[in-house]
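Complex record, two chains
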Amino acid sequence: MLNELKRPFQYKRNSLLNMEKEEASTKKRPKSNNYKQTLKRIWQFLSFNKGLLLLVLFMVLLSSLLGLLGPFLVGMAIDEYIVKKSSDGFIPLLLGLAGIYVVYSLSIWFQNYWMIGIAQNTVYEMRTKLFQHLHKLPIAFFDKRQHGELMSRMTNDIENVSSTLNSSVIQVFSSLITLIGTISVMLWLSPLLTLLTLIIVPLMFFGMKWITKRTGELFKEQQKNLGELNGFIEETISGQRIIKTFSQERKVIAEFTEKAERLKGAGYWAQTYSGFIPKLMNFLNNFSFTIIAGIGGILALKGMISIGVIVIFAEYSRSFTRPLNDLANQFNTLLSAIAGAERVFEILDEEDEFLHENDLRELNDVRGDVEFRNVTFSYEEENQTVKNIDLHVFPGETAAFVGSTGAGKTTMINLLSRFYEVDSGCILIDGQDISDIKRESLRQHMGFVLQDSFLFQGTVIENIRYGRLSATEEEVVTAAKLANAHSFIMKLPHQYDSVLNQDGSGISQGQKQLLSIARAFLANPTILILDEATSSIDTVTELKIQAVLKELMKGRTCFVIAHRLNTVQNANRIFVLDKGRIVEEGTHDFLIKQEGVYFQLHSNAEASTNI
Amino acid sequence: MIKVLSYLKPYRIAVAIALFLTFTELAVELVQPLLMAKIIDNGILKSDLAIVMKWGVIMLGFSLISFAAGVINSFYSAHASQSFGFDVRMSLFEKVQSFSFANFNKFSAASLITRMTNDITQIQNTLFMSLRIMLRAPLLIIGGLVMAFVVNVKLALILSVVVPFLFIFLTWVMNKGGMLFKTVQEKLDSMNNVMRENLNGIRLIKTFNRRKYEVKRFTDANEELKVRTVKALRLMEVTMPILLFIMNISILGVLWFGNIQVNTGSVKVGEVVAIVNYATRITGAFSIFSFIIMAFSRARASSKRIVEVLDTAVDLSDHADADSSLLIKKGKIEFKNVTFQYPGTKTFALENISFIAHPGETVAILGATGSGKTSLFQLIPRLYDACSGEVSIDGMDVRQMKQENLRSQIGFVPQEALLFTGTVKENIAWGKEDASMDEIIDAAKNAQIYETINNLPNKLETKLGQKGVNLSGGQKQRLSIARAIVRKPKILLLDDSTSALDMRTEAKLLHALKAYTCTILIITQKISTAMEADKILLLENGRLLDEGNHESLLESSELYRQIFRSQLREEKINYA
């Protein structure tokens, strides 16, 4: 019991200290400036709905005025009718008040109604913009990031912005208006009491500053931890098969605990500190109430003010501190929204690859002549992945990349499709440097079967049709038949309409590849790229597909990567890669005669099948 | 909601303290108008300054108490709500870790992720709020009413008439809101799902130039989410104007009635003032209500979604009579008439399979794409249970063993090499937590990946991106082999895990594996690999077509000959 009593005060705050250190090491902009920037950018999203926002503002103004008028008239009613015990004209006053309350409620309803629309539109815009931007980012960006962490920005961080916009904008407006209105009325009623009430303002200011300095950072920390947790969850769900077969649930849970605990720590301090604000306000509120009652009482005794004024003032002191209180509260949610928005803008600030594309050309009518001129590239700065690559493939030819794993085969494809940009040298298609061509225009002429065959959650037909969205059902079936996928598809519970689970359970890896090949058949590109397209398919089926592929490859420039050498030996040019360099080049027969690396690789394969 | 709330139990002391402190604050707040009435009636109206001062100081003292209570409350509330959130999250995650694959198919990955983060945050925030602010509102209302009755029964009656109606109205809004917010969360799932698919399939999307198509898909999901959110929120926001209106009208009622009563002399002026003051406070409390209602509706929707996961019956768990003393010692695998079909499908993935793999043997499994090779593998570590027949290891039915005991002796290398964010070393050591540096290096060497690792910028400490994206396919495969052999398993399952390796590397790898005393089952497409095995199983359409060694199969099986021919050089086939 005693322990449980002490627990809340035993949370460590080292997370914050770490962050300060971290921040000190990286160059930082002044914090307040950061906040301002972020707010400005949120405003840019908000201002899409300027017209409606003005209407909301008007409604807030109206409801605030009426909100002030109401208590004022009630105070008057007490002074004039209750205290003086008269009833003449009392009913009309009450009816008038009733009218005011009707309009008051209506104006509140309208402002909320519109504001929700505005807020959700803003959030919608933010999400769409974030998504669009993600699609413009280079592959390298995705290679570095955890998927779940990015997902968290789309959900958890934007959620913060969303809930803040829903209520805070109105609150801030109305608080400001009420504040100004209240102060004016109070000044008019009794400047002396007003000054007394205002004593609390500096106290408030310092209190707030102390608190928000902490909460701002803590919210950021919290969102960051939440993002990391999200990333971890995503990975463990994606990797269930491994976790289960290795029976590593406990290890994963332990790691999760650690991450969840970090989130808990940040969340604890963020909540505790932000919880101070209403309490501080409440206290100051009561404080001013007491001052008014006490000093007001003295003044009333001296006959300087009426009892009605004290009542009104007591009420106003609440109306005065309530908006301040609200403002203070909003400040907290605002900080949490800023913490979320900053993480969204962080992604939006990533340089997108379309940025400089405006000056680039479209690529029309491709013949399929591909040339690499002295191309050098590395994923990380130190070790070069491919070095001084020179090669030329003529239209309609098939080129094969051969070599041990990690020799740089897939890298060649990554460069050709402009997933990555060459460090030096250039790649030409039909004599045009591809770095002068818009990426999407370039890829339009290419068809890919990638090493990892990815399927979307959806039906079989949707997945094949991804190759060409306008394809008819017959075309899809034809493509599936060519890829030898038709027979297994027909065995699925709903044939072409069977829904595939995203993680592909239900069909085998080889079947996935067959679907990917069918997808490429539909695309009908000038340049066809097959990166280990048949690696998981059994060799008998592969032979059947090879025949079809041969047909498909006719008249196209093809790039083939395969470990099974018999799938590449018909290529016009075989490039043998070793540690990022082309060490041999030529046809199969030529390379065999050379008795070099290719010959070695080949005889290894031969030896194993020729007993 | 109740089930989720039961997670608060360990923190009941903190909750009790928080609530008690909230009560303290509240009491102060409620007493204040009373004090004020005293100041007005006894002090000001009677021209007694001493009384004004006395009560003024008392009021200030109360305020300080309330402030201290509030600040301390903050600590306890944050502790209770964060610990609560943490606990729910933990048991949710633990539950998901115990899921079978059939369970997984019930929820999309994106939905599980939303539930573990967003939904829990939703409840956690509501809890924090209710410990601090929310409970104040109902208590303020009740307390305000009670105080009003203390001051003057007749006038208070006017106020209390409307209250039950308001509660009925609010309950209705809350139920309706709960439903609406449930759809909001579901739409959030779908949006999250599109996002996840796009991240996972980014290469494909880029290569097929489907950016616009995907943006459209996302926009649709996003739009749907927006529409649902707006609908739910707008319903919530109707409550406040209605509540305010009703309360304000009842204040007018108090004034009107009070006026009459004051005139007849049965009610004092101070009493009317006090009651109007209470009524205003109650109104103020009601105005937070739309906020509370919203938070509660959301929390209810979210807890339903969490309970849905927690209540899912795990259909593959340790049997009650599972014997924890059963351990794999030798690694003899036996299938007896095993038939299996995936949940929710009509066709058999495996039909009537029987075979034995003796300890130390290498058994190759060959068959066409979709013939059931991977399905067969999955039954061994009991990722699924056979529908009929028995899978046994060292003569023990796998269902009689503890899953952990079973799996800890199996090294599994899946077809799709899946790695985790972290360093190379961490990824290898993933197979055996307490692996020494020597063991890790040994495993890396035997998996033929050590040289590659040494060429990486930070060697074993090199960080890998999500799913190991900055490695080539073959490198990923070898890393995942290293991860499996570092645990020196009794049974090693290789699911076509050498497909991206060249012949030379593969031969070296298979040779290195011979040093391990374990039973190896290897799925392969390559005859060359199969030839090295002690036994070859040939699968077709889920049936075991034939078994034997290379020579005997060449003799007996047409399919095997077919596969063999397909791997000879083409010209040889032509001349065959």
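Note: Confidence is low (pLDDT under 50) at residues 570-576 of chain B.
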